[in-house]
Each structure stands twice: as structure tokens, then as C-alpha cells.
Amino acid sequence: MQHDSGYHLLFSNPRLVEDLFRNFVDEPWVKELDFKTLERVNAKMHAEGLERRDGDIIYRIKNHQGNEAYLYILIEFQSSPDIWMGIRLMVYVGLLYQHLIKEKKFTPSGKIPPVFPMVLYNGKSRWRAQKEVRNLIDLSRQSSLNIYQPRFRYYVLDESLYADGKPGAVTGVLFKLENCYNSEKLPEILDELASIMNTPKYQGLKRDMLAWLRQSLIPGRHLDIDYEKIDELSELRNMLRERAEEWQKEWLKQGIEQGESKLLNRQLNRRFGDLPSWVTDKLNNASSEEIERWGDNILEAATLEEVFH
In this predicted model, what pLDDT tens digit does every residue of 113-146 receive, in sequence order? Predict the structure, then answer.
């Protein structure tokens, strides 16, 4: 839930939404959008028997000809794709249309404006669910019932496809951070983020980005740093760099100890045969000093008990 609210905060910023569409929505009509008119819509849509839709993000925008459209961004944080997403999103867009009708938000011709439904997905497995509702309906293409079936399609932005980001795109760096599970690489990505965020157009986004890093990314990676005291990206980057050096030393030490333990295990096995479980437990939990002492003992010990005495 913390991650959801952090992402919701980020994409409530029009600058980030503009960056997202310009860099990651490969559709010809995006070039026609006038992002100066981008405006957040605080529509809380719900119907009887359905969950209240507070979490999704809706924007109103015009193109350069002055025609209005709505961008519906559904942020999806699940480990795997939802095969019924088309049905869910079709219902949510229907609720948005009901809301627009109730508020009399019609076009000059008296109709309702178009909606672009997009799923922003950050699960680890690739999105392979059907994007067209008609493909979820068990009906032959030759059936005369086809003309009565809904024609609805949604757009998926799968973050796992952009693990390397995109040069100059702040959302690209965001996707790199989401896909990075190597703590040693985080400072380098944060350097890239800081460089982009220092440009004038992103000044208003810095606070929200830092809040997301503190509240969502860092706790989600279980990094042992005091992130609550961080007030600047540079502070977070330097703290991560210092901790990365400490982690590297710890991992190196653990690797040496594990190597010593395996060597002693092999020597004991050759000397005494199959080892009982209590010996294996001791070796798995031993310090480097204990491994060294037991290694000396094996030269003169007549039994396993004498090795570990």
C-alpha cells in the first residue's frame, strides 16, 4: 500500500505524466497533444457492488486543435498480470463516462470525449494478458452476435521492458530504479536522476520524487539506512554509496567464511565419512575464527567430538 500511494503521488504531477507519454507511449496522436492544457481530474467514481476508484489517475487534455480527451492511468502493482484487466478497465472507463454525463462534460457537438485507458504495470513477470475484451469472450468470429459485443482495448506500459530506462527521461530513470535489485548500482542511477531533476522544468517534482524514494523504494529494497533524515537526492546517493562499500566488505567476508566452511566440511568428510547433522549445523553457523580453530584440531583429533572441543 505504501508503494501504491508513493506512485500515485508521483503521477499526480503533470510533469511526470507528460514525460511518461512523450517517451513511452508510442502512439501517433500523442504528438498532437497540447501538454500545457494537461489537468488532473479528481473524479471518485464508484457504483453499487464495485470498489471505490480513488487510486487511479485521470487527466483531461486538449490537442492542438482544441479537442478534449481523457487519459486514464491505472497503476497496477501485482506480481503477475490480471487476465481480466480488460473487463475491469472497461467498467472503470464506463464509470468515468457516467461521471462526465452527470457533470454535463460534453463536447461542443453534445457527445462525450474520448478516453485513453492505460495500465502502468511493474510486476516481475511480463504482461501477457489479452488487451482486447473481444478476445475474452467465447464467440466465433463468424457469429452474428459479434456486432453486439463490446469493442474495448487498453494500452499496457510494462516497466520490466525498460530496465535500462531511456536517456533524458525521468520516467526512464524511475523504471531503472524499479528494476534495480543490485544496491551497488543504485548510487549510479541516483546520479542520473539528480542530473535530470536539476533541470528547471522538474524542480516542482523533486520533493515528490524524494518522498517516493524514502517511503517506497528504499524500504522496499530493505536497505539498512536512515532514510527518514534524507532531505536531498545527493544525501541519499552518498549514503547509499557509503553503505554499498560496507555491504561489499560484509559480502566478501561472508564469501570467505563460506569457502572456509566448505573446505573444512570436505576434509572432515574424507577423514570421518558421512557427517551427522549437528556437524553441518555447526559449520553453517561458524565464524571465521571457529573454522580456523577446528581446522587446526582436525590434524590431531581422533573423533569428530575432539575436532569441535
Answer: 999 999 999 887 889 999 999 999 999 989 999 9
Grid-cell match 523533486, residue found? 206
Is residue 183 over pLDDT 50?
yes
Share of the chain above pLDDT 90, in %: 35
Distance CA 178, CA 183 (A): 12
Q: Please give the Cα distance from 123 to 140 (Å, whole number).
A: 32
The full length of the chain comes to 309
> From CA 233, how far away is CA 215, in angstroms rounded?
14
pTM, two decimals, is 0.70
pLDDT in tens, 243-254: 555 544 544 455
Nearest-10 Cα torsion for 116, 157, 123, 189: -130
Q: Give the three cell numbers for residue 140.
A: 466465433
Q: What amino acid is encoded at 252 in this protein?
A: L
DSSP string for 117-140: EEEEE--SS---S-SBGGGGS---
User: For residues 213 and 236, is the Cβ–Cβ distance under 8 A?
Assistant: yes
CA distance 75 to 73: 6
Q: Hey, what's the cell of 45?
A: 467514481
Alpha-carbon distance 120 to 71, whole Å? 12
Facing residues of 60 across strands?
39, 70
Task: Tell me which residue of 33, 63, 58, 32 sits closest to 44, measured CA to CA.
Answer: 58
The CA radius of gyration of the chain, in Å to the nearest whole number, is 28
> Is there a contact between 239 and 203 (Cβ–Cβ < 8 Å)?
no
Coil, strand, or helix at residue 35? strand
Strand 68-76 relative to strand 57-63, pairing: antiparallel
Say which residue the cell 547433522 belongs to: 277
Residue 63 — φ and ψ, nearest 5°? -90, 180
Residue 4 grid cell: 501504491
